[in-house]
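Exercise 7.
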Amino acid sequence: MITELQRELLPPGLPVLPGLQVAASYLLADEDTEAGGDWFDAVARPDGRVALVVGDVVGHGITASGVMGQLRAVLQERLDAGATPAEALAAADRFAGRMRTAHATTVCVADLDPGNGELTYCTAGHPPPLVVGADGSTRFLAGTGGGPLGTGSAFLVRQDRLEPGDLLLLYSDGILERPLAGSAAAEELARVAADAAAGRALHDPASTAAERVCAQTIELLVRAGGHADDITLLAAQRIDVVPDMVLDLPADPATLRGARARLGAWLSEIGAAEHDVFVLQHALGELATNAIEHSSSTTPIGVRTWLTPAGRVEATVTDHGGWRTPEREPIRGRGLALTAQLVESLHVEPGAHGTVATIRYPLSRPARLLASFDDAPTPSAPPPDMSVTELPGDNEAQVAVAGPIDATTAPLMHVELLRRSRGGTVPMTADLTGVTHLASAGVSALYQIAERHHDQKATLTLIASPGSPARQILDLVGLPVTP
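Solution. The predicted structure, written as tokens, is:
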């Protein structure tokens, strides 16, 4: 229960920001002491700066976890409102003065501008941050002299600067006070962090430098020296800003798959997590398909995406013609509704010379919250082309559908499923677990197949594993599905 409480009180994810890669790892204390009061946070501000926080409440168990959650909320609210590190810590200090169990909490708050590297930080009784330079050098920043919360200390700040490629590491003292660490624990931390940042520690080419520092530093140091307390690492590295993605797409549905691949590559380059890539590929695919099918112009449609300083992807899809009804009967019509459910906001603005659809969606990456060390992730295989495979069955048709089901492949799936179910007269079970992309065109095709089976008084059973791309979309649109 304590472990689950601690996980719920920590941030659900870390922001994806232009010019900065952020990562965090949190390792629970051993079984004798269990979860303590460590926490981390990264608060993206509208002006492009980001506030980084690592704190440590005295003690362990439910009380420490509860206090941690309250202190984190106080600091997050003040930092999100634009307070300086000293002002935010003053608010947390007033809270600690009213709550005995928050007394002597240590905190480090750093305010970083990814654009120019300007850094303002305060160490309230907490170990000072470590900087790993782009050239592999390391240096600990000077402490600011402030005492823990609730002790009557003043909170002074210092300034520094990170150069492009430099990495800032905030950490809790659990990484230094390991049972077998010895007197050179800080030097060992700096050496291992530099090796992890440079990729010299453990082979993990798919991870960013910030992710390697947070994950591998904990693993290597704890395996060598054990741990008794919680350990928290929060890393941020200055990187080059990824340019906006700008596409001009011919008014042809066949181009959408290539556009989806280019969008996925751009999202991966800025650091988007897998689920966010899934959402944005679906949302922009629906808008682009809508523009191609309903625009009266043969002029290419425009797609532009960019990452805002607050960590949101904003994107526009622009066509240059008036609205028209396609000559053929469309197999879609749910695209805008599906898009609105997937993203934070959708705005469609028609005009005399075309329509502009704008979406906004916040990005975040999960932190590593560990009770023990995770196994290395297995690389995923590339998605297959769309296929419909017949499976052994007795008195019904059984098929497995795999690959992307979009405006191009949905008609083929529609024909294949009706052919194998003899026009909907034979009961059918369709396993959609292997579907990698289910656009509204595919949803509409499935609705039509379900209606045909209903009219013929035959059953249609759809199967999709929980968490699969098809299951996420089917749950959104309300199509019955069997786990």
